[in-house]
Amino acid sequence: MPAASKFSIVTVFLLLLPQDFVLAARTCYQCRDINCQRTSYERLEECVHDLDECVSVFYNGIVQAQGCLSTLEEQWLKLCHDQDSPHQECNICVDNKCNNLASKGASCLQCSESEDERCRSDPTQLEPQICPVARSGRNFCYVGLDDAEHLVRGCVTLLTEQADCLARADCELCDPLEIAHCNAMEIIESTSTSTQSPSTSSSSSSSSSSSSTSTAGPSSSTSTLPASSTESSSPSTSTSASQPTTTSTTNSPTTDKPSGNSSCSLSSKYVLIVLLLSKIVTFLYPQ
User: Fold this and answer.
1) Where is the composition biased (Low complexity) (predicted)?
2) Beta-bridge mates of residue 172
């Protein structure tokens, strides 16, 4: 076979090969330590070796490091080699950007009733799927209702999503590391009712408590403030205010029985004398 023909065959063969096979170097998500927990942090690393692999290291379900296996630091490689501990996990994959999934234990049912009726009627027939990597803590599963009242199941990867679910009566969180694909619970209505009942009770008792507190507040201020600042108050306040006045009046010398030398006695005598003189003048000088 001529050399030109051989060259043509090799060229065609190389052109038919997938690009990933010809350029075997991988591109992986990369992070270390606290950067793995930042939702705004996203960095890609291009592996140096053609046959390198992508890796994610987890501890208790929380991602600790990501990147190319060949550039992973020794401290993380030790975790990958020590697979006896149930708390740590090292996931290795060979596709581009394949290390974007959570630990293998973080699997949840991911479905919507609007797309698959089994999501409500028979969720055990559905296959759980590994969640995306959580960038704030670790993954949780949820089951709830969407805006159209359709039942949905899936993963929660952000703290804001966790808070939103916990604040709603029609949403329930669970931990897939404790119970595998735990969001397979069948009846969201019962969960909603049981969740709402304590809330209603709590709000009622809180309301009544608030009501009693607000009622007691003005009562105490009414009985205290007017007594010291104004005389127009409730009868009980008026009585307590007039009590010292009565005592003061009783003890006052002006209420004692007038003595013979008092000014009242002298005035009476002067009046009698004036009347007597008036009678005498009238008798002596009749008109």
Assistant:
1) 191-255
2) 143
